[in-house]
Amino acid sequence: MNELIYNLAVWLDDTQWSTMLHESYYMYNWVESTHVLTLMLSLGMLFLIDLRMLGLALPDVPASRLAERLNAPMLLGFAMMFITGILLFYAVPVRTSQSLWFRIKMVLLLACAVNAFLFHKRMSESVSTWDIEPKAPGRIRFGAMLSLAFWSIVVVCGRFIAYDWFDCDTSPNTLIDIVSGCVDGQTRF
Amino acid sequence: MADESKSKNRGALKRKDDQTAALIVAQAFIVFSAIYWFMQIESVRELLQLAYG
Amino acid sequence: MFVSMFTSYPRTLVVVAALVMMLVLIYGGITEAVYPMLLSVFEWLETTWFGVIGKTWGAAFAFVEAVHLLGLALLGGCVLAGDGRLLGLVLTDVPVNTVVERTHRVFVYGLVICLATGIFMACGVATKIYYLSVYWFKMLALSAGILFHFQIRKPLLSHDIHALNPVVVKMVGVASILVWFMVAATGRWIGFSG
């Protein structure tokens, strides 16, 4: 599996556009900045929805209405994050695919998606009974807390990718090397 | 009666003041941002032109 | 005449005076005079506890950076939702005063998170950012943003928004988004500079 990911990353790395993007000071930084600044749109809306469920934000706005109305800008934000995120991966594929933080982030993103699906399902099933209450029922609140926690760790992991503490060539810890899927000790960057 | 119209008048005056202040600052920010971002983009464009022709 | 204008338009006059003072500060040679004196302050910042931790413990610094980003997301979300409502782009079926007031409260949480983590980060890299014009630009934008938010936007929107001139309301929405975008963008650029 790690070999497969590695070979794919090397193949991506060999493409001309990957090198160009990696080496372009402005283009790379603009893509990176867009990725970071779009947090305000994607996570900003998500946080407002989750905090609403916990009774901490906009408690007098019906929960379903807030979630529904902020859904479109949130998804627009996530779409932009996804596109810029793929570009960032494409610019530095070998190192990123062997990054501990990147791998944790990807797993957590899956967890976020599952949680969002369940959250949405539970909400649409029961919302009519508590829509105008300042706080959602316990199960929904738990989903909102999970969402806040998962996304916060995603941001932390995303920020940590930039640091080289556990890069394959620097980390002496074999367990971390295994989780990071180190193949070549990062002779390819 | 006179008090009521006086406070109403004061409220309207305050609103007018807040509105004028907001108008001045908002247009200053908008104009400044337009100039700033235009200059930023222009300087990068020129730099890239110098580097790659 | 002057006295009556002062009593009728106090906020407007303060705003004009502040704008003029800023121009004097920037173009009157005052910033050049003060700038060298600030170096010792920034050198001192690095010797504080925050500065020592930020400089020597990389993981703590990176973690605080991430929390700074989470604060930014919260702050930005409130700005986009509140100003988006002023511009008629989101939450159009929720009363505008409700959206503005409620998002303001959460905005304050976001701002507090950003300021607290921002001060910590600034201490850790104080002698680096001192020399970066983009850092000073961010501080200028941040001060402008905070003053604008609390002294202009909030008092204006505490009136019945329907009684206000819609063009002014929309301009305030655009200006607010622009200024916070400026703060975030210049902030991100600090990391790429130096």
> What ranges of chain A have pLDDT less than 50 throughout 5 or more consecutive residues?
none
Strand tally of chain B, please? 0
Range of helix content of chain A: over 70%
For the sheet with most strands of chain B, the description reads:
none
Task: Give the termini separation of chain A.
Answer: 19 Å
Greatest interface (CB-CB under 8 A), with counts per chain: A-C, 36 and 38 residues
Summing up helix and strand content along with how strands pair, one would put the structural category of chain B as mainly alpha
In terms of per-residue confidence, which ranges of chain B show pLDDT below 50 for 5 or more consecutive residues? none
Globally, the shape of chain B reads rod-shaped
User: From the structure provided, what is the oligomeric state, counting identical versus distinct chains?
Assistant: heterotrimer
Mean pLDDT metric of chain B: 87
* Main beta sheet strand tally, sense and closure of chain A: none
Please give the share of residues in helix of chain B.
over 70%
Shape field of chain A? elongated
Task: Report how far the terminal alpha carbons of chain B are from each other.
Answer: 76 Å
Number of separate helices of chain A: 9
What structural category do the secondary elements of chain A indicate? mainly alpha
Give the number of domains of chain A. 1
Q: Estimate the mean pLDDT confidence of chain A.
A: 89
Calculate Rg of chain A over CA atoms.
19 Å
Query: What is the number of helices of chain B?
Result: 1
TL;DR?
The complex is a heterotrimer of chains A (189), B (53) and C (194). Chain B has 53 residues and is mainly alpha-helical. In chain C, helix 4 packs across helix 6, helix 5 packs antiparallel against helix 6 and helix 8 runs antiparallel to helix 9.
Describe this structure in words.
The complex is a heterotrimer of chains A (189), B (53) and C (194). With 189 residues, chain A is mostly helical. Chain A has one domain. In chain A, 77% of the residues lie in helices and 0% in strands. Chain A has nine helices and no strands. In chain A, helix 2 crosses helix 5, helix 3 runs antiparallel to helix 5 and helix 7 runs antiparallel to helix 8. The mean pLDDT of chain A is 89. With 53 residues, chain B is mainly alpha-helical. The longest helix of chain B is centred in the middle third of the chain and has 51 residues. The radius of gyration of chain B is 23 Å and the shape is rod-shaped. The model of chain B has no long low-confidence stretch (mean pLDDT 87). Chain C has one domain. Helices cover 85% and strands 0% of the residues of chain C. Chain C is built from nine helices and no strands. In chain C, helix 4 packs across helix 6 and helix 5 packs antiparallel against helix 9. The longest helix of chain C is centred in the middle third of the chain and has 29 residues. The interface between A and C is large, with 36 and 38 residues.
